[in-house]
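Write out the 3D structure for:
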Amino acid sequence: MVEIRSIGISSPRVEGEQKVGGGALYAVDVSVPDLLWAKVLRSPIAHGRIKKIDHAKASALSGVHAVLTGADLAGAKIGKKIVDMPILAEQVVRNRFQGFLLARDAADACAKAVRTVIRGELWVPRALLVQLLFEHLQAAGNGSAETPAEDNLTPREVEIINYVRRGFANKQIGEALAIREDTVKKHLRNAYTKLGVHRRTQIITSAAERFITG
């Protein structure tokens, strides 16, 4: 029986000499009669909804024979093992993400995010969710996030409430304001009483309702 050894032995690439010497033939080097070249326009964002694609200007350019969008290839999918990826984006641009992590996230948050994604669930940091919510609501209406009841809050309580609405945890608020976490909790309890709420989520939703109802 012939012994075959591969580990630890250098294996040269069979096409290496041709590539280095400039003799390799690539697909771009192939030319046939009446050949058309295709150009792919990729999305500048990772995830979004396609509302409209206006290709009138592109279609009018000299030399352009056709412009294809997802609507022209609706239902056509590709994939290696699971054929579930549209050839062209149809209604949404989705780059197969299962979660977001912010650059400032701590190591324990990253570990929790990985465990969540492994379970097949979606992970989005609370701070990012809150930020997106308020950006959307502010774009829909020009109201203020503050409610009339907040006139009774102290300046420090207002500061802390604003951090809560941005998705900060008590420890993060304490670090941002250079105060103890227990002090943050005390201010929050006082603010909850004045605002007539019992949980921090109610502060966020009350502000959201303020925007929506005007």
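Confidence is low (pLDDT under 50) at residues 142-146, 208-214.
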